[in-house]
Amino acid sequence: MTEPVLATHGLRKAYGALQASDGITLDLRPGEIHAIIGPNGAGKSTLIAQICGALTPDEGRVELLGQDVTAETTQARAARGLARTFQISALAMQDTVLQNVLLGALGASGRPWRFLSRVSKDRDLRATAEAALEAVGLADLAALRTAELSHGQRRQLEVAVALTLRPRAFVMDEPMAGLGQEGSQRLTVFLDGLRQQAPILLVEHDMDAVFALADRISVLVYGRVIATGTVDEIRRDPLVRDAYLGDGA
Amino acid sequence: MSPILLAEQVLNGLQSGVMLFLMAAGLTLIFGVMGLINLAHGALYMVGAFAAATVAGLTGSFLLALVAALAAAAAAGALVETLVIRRLYARDHLDQVLATFALILIFSEGTRWVFGSFPLYLDVPDALSGTVTLPGGIAYPLYRLALIVIGIAVALGLWWLNSRTRLGIRIRAGENDREMIAALGVDISKLYTLVFALGAGLAGLAGALVGAIQSVQVGMGEPVLILAFVVIVIGGIGSIRGALIGALLVGLTDTLGGVLLPELFRLFIDPASAATAGSAFASMAIYVLMAAVLVWRPTGLFGGRA
Amino acid sequence: MSREGLVNAALLLALVAVPGWALWADAPFTITLATRAVIFALAAVGLNIALGMGGLVSLGHAVFFGIGGYAMGILASHAQNYTPLMEWPFEIAGTKSMPVIWLVAVLASGLAALLIGLLSLRTSGVYFIMITLAFGQMMYFFAISWPAYGGEDGLSIYVRNGFPGLNTLDPIQFYGLCFGLLCLVLVLHARLMRSPFGLALNAARQVPERVRAVGLDPVRLQLVALVISGAITGLAGALFADLNRFVSPTMLSWQMSGEIMVFVIIGGVARLFGPVAGAGFYVLLEHLLGGVSEYWQIFLGLFLLLVVLFGKGGLVGVLAGRARHD
């Protein structure tokens, strides 16, 4: 088996009496899309927050490229090659579309301490930024204020910013949310190709997309992974049918 | 230093602490319920002091003066809330800071216009003048002792209001969930005016009570306001209990620092320099306390959110 | 040229034309007023970097203004009394040279900003406002109770400090110096806005979680912004003390912090020339209304209230329309 790019071991996190993560162990291997599904309140957001560094687990650890990063900040994990997208778009709305991807490129370059040069004249940053916009199909809108983008375009920009980091692993928090059928089909095709670049840990409600994309699926219920397996295995798993998909599925 | 002197200073610290609490409680309540940072809270303290001095001058009654202070500050608070403040709840903190800074200018210059630049004096009532001898032989001014008692009584009253009355339930509901309280059929804008007037009344009361031992003048409120901010940073925003603990800590640190630091410096340097250096550093003591709390617990001793 | 560009050019022109006219008409008081406006503008440009770009609502910028003022006062008073600043471990003499004083003012206020920032940036929002206000008050009371440099009475300097090749006692030459520094700092601010640092800082104000997610630390960006901001306001403080040949704790007071913020807001926050418009307008209002009524700040208060409640974008915003982003 190849070394996992990203792994969690026995993550536990409680809010008072509520056990939001109850010993979560999973991994993300090179070249794969690993989808996390589960009903609302299953602890998906808490899991992502711990993987990306916004929350510290009570117990357990997070490993990135074989290194224990449990104690590291969000920015340190990003610098190691972890790129995330946000469920609710976290973009600089007052800035242009180009500036948002430039920010990603700047973060990846690790050289923000330049005070007098023009960021838009930095060829390397621009090339990275424009390539990312090109990849998600936003190149024509580069000069637009981000606040003027449609919801779907903001989702695309989220992915573009993640691309500029040239990451070793993606963590995507419901990238399809609110996209509509056509939009999510297009994004599905795009993510399908992206896995060659870096593996994707995909939290998603859109089951069509999950079943189309995922190499493996983990089902999270009440803070526990009740099953991990291929699409077919998950579809057939009686526990999953019972707990999550319901009898009708 | 003699134990008696020390005990006296501890009492002074408590006294200034409970008066600070009256200010800080209103501020923290207003922030907790409406999410508003109110720089004009010190102006309401001043309004209370001026109302008390005026009424005491006209009637000679200290009790009436206190009632006037409460009423005038609460009325000014309600007026300002209705005209200006309620437009600020949905704004960011910068707008709140600027608008309430503008209110300070208007209140201060307006008061100067009406009353002039000379300080007014508010006398301690006869019934509370003089000193009492406490157990242990400490002779202490009766009025200051009364301030401590009043402060504690107000703290208890607030606790009762907050935990035992319908208004308290609504206030706490308003802190947690604005939609919820509106859904319950409570008139939210009336509740906000009431809470603001309550905070203003407490500030006015503090202004009148302290006005009797200091002079009543324009600009008296802002130094107290900033001390109250230090109290809130230490205690944690939105927490009345934090405001009480923070106010007592600040009052005691300020008073005892002023006495003990020069003594401490005397151990190392000559008495004259020790006195000046000691008092200079004592003026910084509460801010050092605040910095220490920030390093230890950035959201204050009893604060939950940033 | 964009509308904002035209407004900016008009403001620059006014800063040349008004003192130029005053020189021709032999009205030195007008030159002094213009100098005051330029120095206030400089202090406000400092705040605008922290506030407009970094979103840091600092109500403690008087600390930096005052430290700059005291840097001038302390160095010059030692020079005029021929007493060394310190003798051990090595001797440091006072100085009457503006460039040296400026350097000390910039370094000292930058250092103060670093220390205050390290503590206050542990929190955010309304805590940050209260904490900066509190540290301002701390410096104010310290200056009052520390008797070595005048305490409450402040420090007077007999003769304005010197600048190589200029006669600083001549109002128009001193004005020229201050104006030159303002232009320099405006150029610096304009470049900061478009720099990689500026891009990251702008984003840190809007979406700190995004900045972290691309591998940058928003708090460090804000800390650096606060240090730059404090250093510029400190430079303005040194000039202000030199203009008045006097420094006192008033420069450290919370009212001063409030006024610096008012310059920025009246003019237009995050606009390059907002502080220039705001400070100019303030000095004009102070001069015109101050002559009419002793209580002119009532009108300032009412005006500020109107700007906050109804006039988003300040003077530059009203004149030039919504901000362009490129």
Count of folded domains of chain A: 2
Largest interface: B-C, 43 and 43 residues
CATH fold description of the largest domain in chain A: Rossmann fold
Spans of chain C with pLDDT under 50 lasting ≥5 residues? none
Question: What portion of residues of chain C belong to β-strands?
Answer: under 5%
CATH top-level class of the largest domain in chain A: Alpha Beta
Helical fraction of chain C equals over 70%
Helix count of chain A, per DSSP?
9
How confident overall, as mean pLDDT of chain A? Answer: 92
Number of continuous helical runs of chain C = 13
Radius of gyration of chain C: 19 Å
Global shape of chain A: globular
Q: How many beta-strand elements of chain C?
A: 2
CATH superfamily of the largest domain in chain A: P-loop containing nucleotide triphosphate hydrolases
> In terms of structural class, how would the helical and strand content of chain C be classed?
mainly alpha
Classification by helices and strands of chain A: alpha/beta
Fraction in beta strands of chain A: 15-25%
Low-confidence stretches of chain A: none
Q: Report on the biggest sheet of chain C.
A: 2 strands, antiparallel
Instruction: State the shape of chain C.
Output: globular
How would you characterize this protein structure?
The complex is a heterotrimer of chains A (249), B (306) and C (326). Chain A contains 9 helices and 10 strands. Chain A is of the alpha/beta class and 249 residues long. Chain A has 2 domains: 1-81 and 167-249, Rossmann fold; 92-166, no CATH class. Chain A has a 6-stranded mixed sheet with strand order 6-7-8-3-9-10, sandwiched between helices. In chain A, strands 2-1-4-5 form a 4-stranded antiparallel sheet, covered by helices on one side. By secondary structure, chain B is mostly helical. Chain B is globular. A two-stranded antiparallel sheet of chain B has the order 1-2. Chain B has one domain. In chain B, 74% of the residues lie in helices and 3% in strands. Chain C has 326 residues and is an all-alpha fold. Chain C has one domain (3-21, 49-320). Chain C is 72% helix and 1% strand. Chain C is built from 13 helices and 2 strands; from the N terminus they run αααααβααααβαααα. In chain C, helix 2 (28-53) runs parallel beside helix 6 (171-194). The chains are: A alpha/beta (249), B mainly alpha (306), C mainly alpha (326).
